[in-house]
Design brief:
Acyltransferase required for the direct transfer of medium- to long-chain fatty acyl moieties from a carrier protein (MbtL) on to the epsilon-amino group of lysine residue in the mycobactin core. The protein has 5 helices and 7 strands; from the N terminus they run E-H-H-E-E-E-H-E-H-E-E-H. It is α+β, with helices and mostly antiparallel strands. It has a 7-stranded mixed β-sheet with strand order 1-2-3-4-5-7-6, with helices on both faces. The chain starts with a strand and ends with a helix.
Length: 176
């Protein structure tokens, strides 16, 4: 599968994102009741943030997923764990579809990690999904994430997990 990334345009992409984040399958994104203006405002805030970026993931040129990259020293996890040099936080959301493709979500998270680890400064990817999101925990572990501990964030109880470049390569069967 061929994936590409482009910076998210908070205004042009808001309608598309609104459909994605308010879909029942995006319950853990915690924007179920968001209005279009709420989505615009949130992604304008991210676009203006020095330590947080959002990208639209394209599959064969068509929007298929959202990827957020953040510096956990300043965003999402500030004060909740001891960050190491090279830590990069990540969120991703696959677009809802009526025609699921087997293996697509795993291909997306693999592409996201490829993109993050393409930056030589990235040593470890950090995630903090809701503890109840068992599907994403299994997916994370399949690509090399190791759960460390539960943490309490203002909006949720989260499972703090890390994936080093070496763990990702090992999960893919690639020699380090």
């Amino acid at each position: 599968m061929r994936f590409t990334f482009r910076p998210l345009d908070p205004l042009k992409d808001a309608e598309l994102l609104h459909r994605w984040v308010t879909h029942p399958k995006a319950v853990f994104w915690m924007m179920q009741d968001a209005r279009l203006q709420d989505v615009e405002r949130e992604y304008l805030r991210i676009a203006a943030h020095e330590h947080h970026q959002a990208h639209l993931g394209l599959h064969e040129g068509e929007p298929a997923f959202l990827m957020e990259r953040y510096d956990p020293r300043y965003v999402e996890l500030a004060g909740l764990y001891d960050p190491e040099p090279g830590d990069v936080g990540m969120h991703f959301l696959v677009a809802p579809t009526d025609r699921p493709v087997h293996g697509f979500t795993r291909a997306v998270i693999t592409a996201v990690l490829d993109e993050l680890f393409a930056d030589p400064r990235t040593r470890r990817v950090v995630v903090e999904p809701d503890v109840r999101n068992k599907a994403v925990h299994a997916l994370n572990e399949a690509v090399g994430f190791v759960p460390v501990r539960e943490i309490q964030k203002p909006e949720k109880r989260a499972l703090l997990s890390f994936c080093t470049r070496e763990q990702f390569q090992a999960a893919r069967g690639v020699a380090a």
